[in-house]
Amino acid sequence: MKQHTHKRLYDTHSWVGIISGILLFIVTFSGIPALFEHELGYWQYPAFGEIAEDRSFDLERTIATANDIGFQYDKLTIQLPDEINNHIMLSHFSDESEFYTLYLKTGSYEEVESSPSALGQILTHLHTDLYLPRPFGRYLVGLAGMAMLLAIIAGIFIHVKWRKEFVMLRPKRSWRLLLTDQHKLLGLWSLPFTLILAFTGTILGLLGIISPILALAAFDGDVQKATDTILGPRAEITGEPAPIYSLNELWIKARSDLADKEIKLIEIEGAGDKGGLIKFSAHHQKHLSNIETVTYSTATGETIHEGSFIGKGPFHRIFAAVTPLHYVLFGSVWLKICYALAALGACGLIVTGNMLWLERRGHGMEHLLSKLTLGICGGLVVATCALFPVSQLLYVFKLGEEHHHFEEWILWSTWGITLFTPFLWKNGFQLSHWMLRISAALLLSTLLVDGLVNSRWFWLTSGWNFYIQAGIIFFALLLVYLDIKMPDEKKEKITNRKTATQATHI
Amino acid sequence: MFTKIIRSTGSRNIAAIVGSFLATVALTIAITLLWPFGDLVEQVLAGGTFFFIFWASIFYWATLAQDGLQAWTRVLILLVPAVTIDIINLAS
């Protein structure tokens, strides 16, 4: 590669990273809990842990029970119980973007009180929309993904000695070399995962922007028509009443039509109207696809649309795989753990990248980027770790609906306060140590609070509660390890030849 | 003066960010219209996938130009034929 090309790619890699780094950290770090949203949902509310012995599903009984309770909406989504979610979840999105949910116990169809905690959802919302109004937050996340993709592409080309860099860490040399080695190590080891996450995340984030472009080319600019053709039609309410076809028969028919696939969602719109539809959505069990659908008329029971992305062209396969690849809707929990570790690696990659940029330009802690990196990135880690024990502690006060508002308040206030600490505390190394210690202590206190409030002591838990608690301990220990390993001050470059040969190859 | 501005680093960066996006949009529409394989949905999804490939490729093609003028030339080499194809196809 020509020196000019290498330098240009290197500069682009640096600037793309610097401009988007902090935003990328927020998206990537919040993506870790978002990856475990369902598991966290199970853990955050102890009542969700009760497992019914009878897990059979009766669609008509579900609808009838919901109607009796007063959960009657023209448009309903039913999420079926699975390995993690024990209950049947009915939900409705109103036109005013309000979200209503009803939980029913499998088997007995008794109402289960909705979770007052929204820990998983809060962090997921931060990951997908940055808590900004739709769709702008989503677009910003998509653009951050595109920046990550561009930085990765340049990073691949500029690291020509990748075989050596794969295993090189020189902790006894200068601070700058340590940052360089860590940046390269983290980047190379997490590369396959970060590449997948960046590409799929960009598609998911920017789908709203590219849809009108694609619709202009193939559907005269009609985005709704394009969406209906790809994902199946929406109900057209005629106002003409019609008897509802047996929903249980349609459920049996759907299971036959979607053989080899696991039905996850049922969407009912306009039942009782001539134009009413019911759509069953499934995940393919052998291929990467979560958009296998079949749609029937609720009036006649006839099949309106069958959508399968398997057995079609290569681009069907690519788009079908986007969500499963991004949210790990395949493989075992170990694969999710690999994704989470890679995301953690990417967080380290972003922070070391920013610090390296500052170091190479001779800036210290007094630089604004340095303060913002520590305040925003470190602050998010502290705030997220504070959210876990507080979420459980709030059950003591029986706040009901207010529970999740307090959780949001804790996240934002902790983050806000920590964000300003680098502007007051001049020693960045010392502050980083304290942030790591406080975060680890908060995580470990979660286990204590969980034990005291919910009697879920670590040694007594099993299943997903155990895995979540083990994950919390692992992350706390990782933070303690980083606290031990991180230097207390910047080491100056050692030029002594003898010392220079002491590079440690791991 | 104009030549100086066009040749500047800032101009090259704008070509890489804005120019590459515009060329990507035009090329995506063109490839969606002309994609010869599969059904209409496959055509649309092909366009959707190529969008990101085009964007990244054109961004770096413009970035690696010697100066702003060359970056804009590279963007226009793609943009003009793509827009022409789009207009001809969409008008017919």
Secondary-structure map with pairings?
The complex is a heterodimer of chains A (506) and B (92).
Chain A: H1 3-35, H2 37-44, H3 59-69, E1 75-79, E2 87-93, E3 99-105, E4 111-112, H4 119-129, H5 136-158, H6 162-165, H7 175-189, H8 191-218, H9 223-231, H10 247-257, E5 261-269, E6 277-284, E7 292-297, E8 303-307, H11 314-327, H12 333-360, H13 368-393, H14 402-424, H15 428-454, H16 463-485, H17 497-500
Antiparallel strand pairs in A: 1-2, 1-5, 2-3, 3-4, 5-6, 6-7, 7-8
Helix pairs in contact in A: 1-4, 1-5, 1-12, 1-13, 2-4, 5-8, 7-12, 8-11, 12-13, 13-14, 13-15, 15-16
Chain B: H1 2-7, H2 9-34, H3 40-63, H4 68-91
Helix pairs in contact in B: 2-3, 2-4, 3-4
Keywords (chain B): Membrane, Transmembrane, Transmembrane helix
Transmembrane segments (chain B): 14-38, 44-64, 71-91
Question: Can you tell me about this structure?
Answer:
Chain B: The chain crosses the membrane at residues 14-38, 44-64, 71-91. Chain B: Keywords: Membrane, Transmembrane, Transmembrane helix. The complex is a heterodimer of chains A (506) and B (92). With 506 residues, chain A is an alpha+beta fold. Chain A is built from 17 helices and eight strands. Chain A has helices at residues 3-35, 37-44, 59-69, 119-129, 136-158, 162-165, 175-189, 191-218, 223-231, 247-257, 314-327, 333-360, 368-393, 402-424, 428-454, 463-485, 497-500; strands at 75-79, 87-93, 99-105, 111-112, 261-269, 277-284, 292-297, 303-307. An eight-stranded antiparallel sheet of chain A has the order 4-3-2-1-5-6-7-8, with helices on one face. Chain A starts with a helix and ends in a 6-residue tail after the last helix. Residues 496-506 of chain A have low confidence and may be disordered. Chain B has one domain (7-91). In chain B, 87% of the residues lie in helices and 0% in strands. In chain B, helix 2 (9-34) packs parallel to helix 4 (68-91) and helix 3 runs antiparallel to helix 4 (68-91). Chain B starts with a helix and ends with a helix. At the A-B interface, helix 1, helix 5, helix 8, helix 9 and helix 11 of A face helix 2 and helix 3 of B.
